User: Fold this.
Amino acid sequence: MKLSIIIPTYNSASVLPKALDSIVGQTFTDWEVLIMDGASTDNTIEVAKSYNDPRIRIYSEPDKGIYDAMNKGIQKAKGEWLFFLGSDDYLLDNQVLEKIFSKIENNLDVLYGDVLSTHLTPEHHGVWGINKIKNKYNICHQAIFYNKALFKRKGQYDLKYPLLADFEFNMRWFFDNRTMHKYVPVPVAFFSDGGCGRQQKDTAFLHNFELLLLKYGQKNLNIDEKITFTKLCLINNKEGLFTQAFLKIRLLLYRIKRKLKKSRKQTNQFLEKYFEWQKALKQDKTQFVPFTTSPYVPQAGDPKIYAFYLTQFHAIPENDHAHGKGFTEWTNVANATPQFVGHHQPKIPYDLGFYNLLMPGVMERQVEIAKAYGVYGFCFYYYWFSGRKLLEKPLEYFLHSDIDFHYHLCWATENWSKKWDGGEQELIVEQHIENDDAEKFFNDLLPYISDPRYDRIEDKPVLIIYRSDIFDKDRLVSFLGRLNELSIEHGFAGLYIMGTNAFNFDSPEEYNYKGLVEFPPHGINLELYKVEKKRIPGSNFNIVDFSNYIRQKCYLAEKTYPVFKSCFPSWDNSPRKLYSNGYCCLMNDEDYHQWLRDIILWTREHHTTEENIIYVNAWNEWAEGAILEPTTFFGYKNLDILKKTIEEARQ
Assistant:
């Protein structure tokens, strides 16, 4: 058998007669036709049988797509040459096969393109998923598909492996040392019917390839001329007129150009959607929750809710030098921009606006708001560096005021750096402990722990150590032990010292801590919940599906040591760390409510009345998106959820 013509079909009754008529009428007769039907539901099989020609064999069974059907045809074909024809393609004239086999020579193994056949309708582009592949690669389909391709069965480039629909795999054969047989070879010669004629913009790749291989781009060639140029193509290639390196570079440049064009189109579409969303967001007034008309009234059994409190809302010389004159946390907050559709930034403060903590009345109003919603006290960050203090003025203001509110301190044991990561690069002030620092620290701490508003447990002033691993363990344990001795010497029962789980710290017993304070998102493997989202160009921070974490109730995992539970209403530190591996946690109001409610109930069950304490991260961490304070868009919503959850948990 000289030629096997493989025709995959599926519901092709209306077009198949044109293809079969063009084959049956050929002057060349040494052929067979294999109809590989994918279990058509129309009368495709009856149409094929109506020809009553023994050379037309019909196979009908469900397949996994066009390439599955073609591969089955290869296994059943008997011909020396294999010709793949679409059910809606037909041979150009009744002498095409005779002309081909009278002119091809032994060194021609593949003939490809419109040399043999054409589409039933010139404008038709929908067969065999062409549009899908065209959209993926944005190039003419003749450079991808096997239909209308003639392969020599026992040629140098034999079809030893299944046909692949992946253009990249197919191209690899042509450019990577022709001895490679891991992939099916792409056709050696590429031709079109006058530049595909139908959509000029889709033929750029094909035109380039013809020019590369043939050195000139004649179109509208007849069959004899096309066969001649096919031979020329093979000969020129073997003589090395077009080196692999040259062809690789040309193809790479073409791909980059196409990719950039496609990327620009997608970016423009995204930005259009992005700006429409932003416009709609600014007009949306439905999310704002006004100040409560029914302030929180404490009851026995209610948890003591403490909110971590950041004092970096006033200028200091160290920040002026590192970040520019007048820098405060508001600088980062105001510069934030949404990085994807649905990313609510910047968050603008409501009620007190962009406040300065050194201005009288600011902390008074904050406490008034906090009390109205059930916040029991603030846990102030205390920035102490071997006797040097930073951001201490708001604390001193609070200490000397008559503000009626509970509080205690969390020693912010991190390096003060420009990168906001507590690391050792671009340091402003380094954190360390000297031999006589315990006395210095205690003397600075004493005015606060002596204040009647300062929180105590077991008659011991509460002190939280934010990060324990930054110090040598033995040095820190010795330092804290001396602090405890000094507190006893000054008439206290000792210090109630706890650590946080910042940077995954989980061994409080080794430091003689009374317990561990959770400090989310520390202690949570956010990598498990990362999701992909279309972001604006240049944005590289991480997006996390935090709702999944809440649904799994991972925060209720039991520990072997006392734990003080914490939560946050939201987390998005893109204002502070957009270009340094920041995180945005996607969560909704119900997630926040569920998390808070669960840890309130857990704490009631696991702690004494005196230790019925819960922390919220945070009151005013604006650059990390962890805020209870009201915003211009949401109003007092985070606080409102807090109050309602406390009241609901009573039941």
Remarks:
- The radius of gyration is 37 Å.
